[in-house]
């Protein structure tokens, strides 16, 4: 079977449920390692962005360009991630994944030579962001194809690797900057990112590693999957325009549901606040006069608090049922005050305390958002996720540059962090109105 179509669902070729099963190990462990490396290198270096480019932005007369770069990066990531999901219907994991890895590394190479903010927007924001966005659906899809019974355990391992990268990268980047300087640090990071090529190369079609079932499937065994394949006609794929492809993969009728729209918009603005905070906190701390090591330690402490909160939440939800939307809502309410609190004092003990609390609260946004989204469209989660990706991407492209303009106009981070609080407030107000309206209707 042609590798390009080996993992696709279609109409003709079918493996018997009673004969073949995903390996749940074997080559799947290499896939798991590849996924782990993808998220380590993608999220880890992005988490240290403010530390890595602080001196660069100072040379460019301020940090107003940072939100622009971050907004473009996350916008490109979201849009390319959506398009990658569409591409996986026609091409193999490795074909799509290697394209993403190539873009990511190309962005690294070009970033080494940037001298202006607009160049960084293109190299890091557009090219690198698009590359990472392409690799994310590949990683998740390949992982889900290879694991069924061990899926939770293996995904937990991947999440741990990603969290460890978020903890260690700020310190590592600080060390590289002190030892090798800005340009050579970028070159060394690029060299490390070359491992993404190997991470994508191990994403074999699952059919190559299927195992035979001895006993056949058991009453409700969700460990069995059905693999289908089809080859689309060349004429059909050429005739489809990009707009039609996007339209065919976005179920816009979901937007007729006011409750879904409220959830979509609230999640989007909460994400803008979260992502912008991670990028701008180091710049704020540098403006307080902190050393690179103090800033890196503060970021690391926040990441450790986030990791502890994730483990605690996982253990708690294993024994007790929780309302994900209510936890997300409460976390967003607290975040409004935490963003403001961070700019109220430059005392190091105070800043570290606020950072730790923010790290503990942050998991309510990052971990629970899929569960919140699925409650808004329980039977149509893939379509809801696609709309979330598109909306969040375009929102970041608009909101983050506006936050940068606020800094340029005021010359202070105070109003930037107030803007992040306003983003969270939009989520809280929308969901509060929704709760009041639908509670009256139900009573």
TrEMBL record:
Gene3D superfamilies, per database record: MFS general substrate transporter like domains
Name the Gene Ontology molecular function terms of this record: monocarboxylic acid transmembrane transporter activity
Keyword set for this entry? Membrane, Transmembrane, Transmembrane helix
Q: Where are the transmembrane segments?
A: 27-53, 65-84, 96-114, 120-147, 159-177, 183-203, 260-279, 299-320, 327-343, 349-373, 385-406, 412-438
Q: Which InterPro entries match?
A: MFS (IPR011701), MFS_trans_sf (IPR036259), Proton-linked_MCT (IPR050327)
Question: Which domain of life does this protein belong to?
Answer: Eukaryota
UniProt keyword rRNA processing, yes or no: no
| The name this protein goes by in its record | Monocarboxylate transporter 2 isoform X2
Gene source species:
Papilio xuthus (Asian swallowtail butterfly)
